[in-house]
Design brief:
heterodimer; A: 112 residues; four-stranded antiparallel β-sheet; B: 111 residues; mainly beta; five-stranded antiparallel β-sheet; 11 strands
Chain lengths: 112, 111
């Protein structure tokens, strides 16, 4: 059974640029959630995708968008990057939202 | 708006001690509560999931309880080991699939 994987591991971008982060779900999981974790804070829920549809969203602006593909892998896109977007971005997969979430190792994004 | 609080923020205990971590939440309308551990700079490892209809879950030296009506959960760690040193986070899933995490409790177990 393959776990949740994320790419890239680290990324450095300039303010105003756009970034795409990728996540592969654990085998058999149809739900993916994305989180932003600033240093010293708990993860903040960005949104969740279930069977390719957005299924829930936290308090993040529209420049944070996502996709889920037929194989249940997912992308997080962030436009017009700001310095405060620097954080660890985590994705988690589960078999539907009420089930146990399994997290990937995260992508460390630095915006300069 | 759901708020999750974890107490204490940090804890240092000698090896072998039993300990309790606390998690409280303001909105009792939750689907489940999950406990995680996070090592520095790493992703989260799931420890225990408690559905809203359950009172507790156990896995090895870990026991988590849930009192939904009072908005509280505890994570009990028996016979702590240095390898248990990490940050422990609790998260609740509420309406519209929204997940809310606490800031975590940073645990250090001293050999």
């Amino acid at each position: 059974e393959t776990g949740v994987t994320q790419s890239p591991t680290h990324l450095i971008k300039t303010r105003g640029q756009q970034v795409t982060l990728r996540c592969s779900s654990q085998s058999g999981h149809n739900t993916v959630s994305w989180y932003q974790q600033a240093l010293g804070q708990g993860p903040q829920f960005i949104f969740q995708y279930y069977r390719e549809e957005e299924n829930g969203r936290g308090n993040f602006p529209p420049r944070f968008s996502g996709l889920q593909f037929p194989n249940y892998s997912s992308e997080l896109n962030v436009n017009a990057l700001e310095l405060d977007d620097s954080a660890l971005y985590l994705c988690a997969s589960s078999f539907q939202s009420a089930y146990e979430q399994y997290f990937g190792p995260g992508t460390r994004l630095t915006v300069t | 708006k759901q708020e999750v609080t974890q107490i204490p923020a940090a804890l240092s205990v000698p090896e072998g001690e039993n300990l309790v971590l606390n998690c409280s939440f303001t909105d009792s309308a939750i689907y489940n509560l999950q406990w995680f551990r996070q090592d520095p700079g790493k992703g989260l490892t799931s420890l225990l999931l408690i559905q809203s209809s359950q009172r507790e879950q156990t896995s090895g030296r870990l026991n988590a309880s849930l009192d939904k009506s009072s908005g509280r959960s505890t994570l009990y760690i028996a016979a702590s080991q240095p390898g248990d040193s990490a940050t422990y986070l609790c998260a609740v899933v509420g309406g519209y699939q929204k997940v809310t995490f606490g800031i975590g409790t940073k645990l250090q177990v001293i050999p």
